[in-house]
Input
Amino acid sequence: MANSPHGGILKDLYVRDEPIQASLQAEAETLPYVTLTERQLCDLELILNGGFSPLDGFLTLAEYTSVVETLRLPDGTLWAIPIYLDIARSELDKLGVSTGSRLTLRDPRDDQPLAIITVSDLYTPDFANEAEKVYGANDQAHPAVHYLFNNTRDTFVGGKLQAVNAPQHYDYVAIRRNPTEVRALFKKLNWTRVVAFQTRNPMHRAHRELTVRAARMRHANVLIQPVVGLTKPGDIDHFTRVRVYQAIMPKYPNGMAQLSLLPLAMRMGGPREALWHAIIRKNFGATHFIIGRDHAGPGKNSQGQDFYGPYEAQDLVLKYKDELDIEVVPFQMLTYLPDTDEYMPINEVPKETKTLNISGTELRRRLKTGAPIPEWFSYPEVVRILREANPPRDKQGFTVFLTGLHASGKEAIARALQVALNQEGGRSVSLLLGETIRHELSSELGYTKRERNINVARIGFVAAELTRAGAACIAAPIAPYDEARQLVSQQVGKTGGFYLVHVATPLEACIKNDRAGVYQRAINGEIKGFTGIDDVYEVPENPDLSADITKTSISQIVHEIILLLERDGYIGDR
Output
């Protein structure tokens, strides 16, 4: 028999409101509406399907204050993380929202109405207090605190919800199960003792060993329930992770484990988050919950120290074990013993015993460089999936971004580099010259600072997409402003390599090279806002390469760029 829900009743609002769904659908089309953020969408789905029971709406001021200050709802029920609907006051005023208003909440992906909220509270939160009380520090190195101060709107809307439609998902639909469906699955399989495992990372042999050990210790089955909502910035995408989970499931004995996805927006809140995760798993019917080392830890603070102790999350959840009514299965980190070919909790390893481990940093290095990943660490099927999603450098894309004054020689360098990379082979090469982009993508733009930045941003978008696809992209705009260049660097850097090359040819040489006479027209006042004459060019402070065609030949400059690419493994056979 599945565990009882938190608070005694599973608040499945889809089931509750199904008899009046048609009338709610019709009403939703007549009401003012807001479009949810990605985090709000995750939160809403788990309120509506009962995953956040006993919540049946977004927190009011009294509920928010109680959760932040005491880890409890006003009625005394344990609840660790504040779940709120943040909307800008200016938007609420524009919509005419006040206490008693009814508001439609729409899906940001397809604009479908998902729920109606009856507003019972509008309040202004204390972000600093929430950061200190919930996450332990007012430090924006914590991803949840950074989100709080940079993404959260200024007004919280509290109130009860009515379910209109469930969010539509098109990926892994068969294993996206709500609490009612998971409980029905347990009943069908005759599972009475279930240990749940939370993860936001790919699973390897140690994770399989850990979950099997937990099942043996508690005479239970295993629910693998990875998060596919929002996780820590920089985490591996959920499509790759789910393929890994599907590959590892056959490694369990037949009938031992099931895989079910959880659309949760994590906060990386350490101890409080672990308590929240335990409550959620209880709502899904699990009787046991694994909490390992540094559960939901966000990493280092701004002083370089861990935000939380390695087992602080275990300690907090164990403190409330009696009223939680879900048994915590605490685990130390597992390590591999090569002499006996087994995994063992690190605190159980005999002294002087040889152990092996591969850290997350080391795993990423091996994936990046193509170095071998031993079978004692992970299964070949898992490694193959991770390598497909994280190809080595020589299979990744990159962008070489040449910036400099008009007629500085950057176009000639770009064309010569294109020839060199085509000769190298191994990937397609695309050339984005400034004038070509102006004609093809930005013909409506002028030459104000704002319009120049828009043009560079468009180049950055195209470059990032080409880089994501594994191509070599060579861009050669003037790009006079540092802010715009930095944004392109950040955008492209998420998908592959980025190299900023400053073509630092002096203005006098550029004027001499300008056979079209554009500089002279600008000097004569016929052209206004011309870079280098009456508009500024902000010299890059730390380019990957700086070159002047009056001092260095184009072939030598191209060779130096090739050496940069070879140094970092993008070209050449290592």
Summary: The two ends are 57 Å apart (CA to CA). The chain is about 40% helix and 15% strand. The longest strand covers residues 113-123. The mean pLDDT is 94.
